[in-house]
User: Fold these one by one.
Assistant:
Number 1:
Amino acid sequence: MFSLSLALLTLSLVTGSLGSQRATGCGQAPSMAPGDFKNFTMTDGREYRVWLPGNYHSDKETPLILSYHGANRDIDHQVDLDKLTDPLFNKDHILVYLQGTADDPSRPTHTTWEGAPDCKSDDIKFTHEVLDAVTKELCVDEKRIFATGKSQGGGFVGRLACDAGLSSRIAAFAPVSGAYYIKEIDVESDCHPETVVVPCDASRKDIPILAFHGGADTTIKYHGDFRTNACLPDVSSWARQWALRDDLSGTPANTSIAKSDNGVKMRYGGGLVTLVYDGDNIAHEWPSTTPNEDNGGITMAAFNASAWIMEFFRGHRLP
């Protein structure tokens, strides 16, 4: 009897220890009201902003989206651009906007993300720390954490998907006009965008990817480039490599995008990996059918990337 009781006590202690390794905010009142934004600052000065959907309840696990702005931008810009706090697109996911760093004192507004040629910050660590902090305060569904971002922020989302730790913590990824820099290749003659292998250390083989890119993008070219002393892959090759990592066929099923300028949706594995070619006329933009800071109200896309991103995220969760 004594040995059985001791065994049960030991099991209880071990189980309790394992269960307390990551605190959750379920059941406790948040420091902000549903429908509101709140800014947070980490001990090292890094900043992020949280938005709670209007239907948030501390007793119900709620999915969460991480959103990353582009280079030379900030949280305010990304909130206005992705519109993922607009009830038109999202009524039930927490949004967390992270702020990049400006590592060069002579360029105080040149914010960047890890993986870019001139970035020195550890944004993988920053992302882990933000998730730890947010899940400690809020009731987050940790099987449904997602990531999206624009340009350099989109490139960093691709890096998150290839990180051994965060690829097992984030369920699905949606980069927009992503800058997928391979800074290990810093000599132009060594950069071959159509065949360059993208470094990746993902911890699973079922990673959902939804990427967007426009044919008129002269900043991060669809067919790749050598830019700021780093190699940029051809975007279709980048997507194909994801399909192969996920053990899918390397040949996509293509469908035209209605009312677009030769836009195509390329789906691998039934859409587990999807590349959206926005159209011949879409530049370095967050595709939208309404004016935003990217399109200037001049060239509208045939679809809203935000709507497609939300639909994609709702279809995925960690196993």
Number 2:
Amino acid sequence: MATFRFPKVLNDVILAHNDRFIQQIKPKNGVNSFVFPCRKIVFNYCERSGSSKSMMEYLQKEALDFAKENPQIEVIVQPRPSKHPLIRAFYTNGKQKTKTLRKCSAAEIPEVVKSLRDHSGHKLLRWNKYVISNTPSVRGIFSPFHVHEEYKITDQKQ
């Protein structure tokens, strides 16, 4: 059985490429696992103010269940004296989003927390074009509904 050996220079190049390749591997969505975009949620509240009553009620009743359901998210509860309650969400892309809960009831807070958890961290953009492409088509998007009668496919049994 014959074995093939690479020249020493080529072996060094292959090893260097493999090392560089291993260093560049990061967890990415869809490749091997799912990386949750929200990494940390911070609940800030005041123990004495009336605007924080609903936040304190949520923290006592539902925050522990939220933390158990989402072990991938770090949940931090911090008192913030003489300030209105707020929730900060930190995302894997380095962005953060803040929501104040000054006029929210205890029933509305889980919806706010869920929206912060499910957000990607990117700014919301309005898309003017329906198809994003590096090479836009001159003819436009193909649609089977805009074909001449002579080229339409009909039932063969007629």
Number 3:
Amino acid sequence: MVKVPSLLLSQLVWHDLKVTPRELRLDTLRCGQSFRWKQVQEHHWACALQGQLYVLKEDPLTVYYGMAPNEAEDPQAVSRTAGALRDYFQLDLLSLDDAYQRWNKADPHFNARARFFPGIRMLRQDPWENLICFICSSNNNIARISQMVDKLCSHFGPKIATLDGTDYYGFPALEKLATTQTESKLRALGFGYRAKYIHQTAHMLKDVHPDDWLMSLRKMDYEDTKAALITLPGVGPKVADCICLMSMDHAEAIPVDTHVWQIATRDYGFSKKSTTKTMSPALYKDIGDHFRKLFGSFSGWAHSVLFSAELKVFESKLVDADADTKPKKRKRTR
């Protein structure tokens, strides 16, 4: 049995990621993109990714990553960790400060919310992990999705490390979820109908598609990537758009769920444009096209800021808003 490291937060050596608050805030980790980061203290977060435990903290000026003392003495290990985090947060892809300024000018609704939500970036996640997590998201909320994904990792994934007595597990390999016992085990863990979709998708990726098929979708254009993803069990247009945006490098993808539909009807006039109260494929596309035209490049990133402003977990951020910029009072979701 492989011995996993046992770490203490108080003993970690911290390195500056050298990123301003306008470029990254760790609220990014709790706005419905990833469901695996755990808050270990105020402003401190941890998650096992790609076989390594990542621990982050932020202060008003920057974000830091923590490393075990022995690893912190290895310049290559420090550089690898920094590089992995820069890729994960896509820090070298886009100046978020410049993008916010552009989106503020394009849309008064974005401008009214943006100052309360600085540094919300899109994560660049592993496609396999992202796919399975968003199959879990069907008819679900962030808290329950997080619980399900935690069960998935602790029952099927490898133990990576222990931090302050809490075990952290990696995401299960495809082979672990493609066995004949997977569906029954997941149903016993409370996954419901999603258990079938997870098992069927894992089986399809293992036995039908080439090993690199899922990762190869990053090289295709947006519409082809989305169409390919929809062929997988449990993946509809919204889930496919989440995967396109969060792990397939398609920044123009706009996932439209009931919450985005509420934004579109409340703030962008879609209640007048629509002749139905249900989400038809044509209406779904119209909403996405509206945001793509409004925000231009990286429109999916702008959409994520608007989505974050709807989340109950961030409700306190809007309390002190000025009367002329505070969004209308409304029932909070998720």
Number 4:
Amino acid sequence: MIPNGHFHKDWQRYHTKIRAGRGFTLQELKAAGLNAPFARSVGVAVDYRRRNKSVESVQLNAQRLKEYRSKLILFPRHEKKKLRKGEATEEERNVATQLKNEVMPIRQSVAKSKARAITEDEKKFNAYIFLRKARADARLVGIRAKRAKDASENPEDVTKVAKEPKKSKK
């Protein structure tokens, strides 16, 4: 029922999924213009232990808090006293209804890509050969640099000259 901060799961399989946390961090509350005691008094969970790992999650959760605050109708603490800042008027209180389901549920954002025709470059591309070549290039970068350096220092030495790639016959 209480809105919680949400964040991405840590595991590789589920890192695209967003789940509800134990509460909002103090940084997120501050970005939304709330303090911890007031947030707890209006039903917002606060987690002092949680740390923010990215600016995007802080902004997303602060936006979520601002949206919750805008929909919130605060009833006055004392009926006979003057209304405080943020408290609802008589008309707003008459319109208010109690929610029975989850408050502001977390929705997964699904980015669906449209179907398209496969291009000629994609048809010719061989992923296995590309990856093998990338691994070989990464593994041999040091020895190739050494050979190039030796060949530039001793141009007359034939054994140090880099071989030209063979041309395939078609």
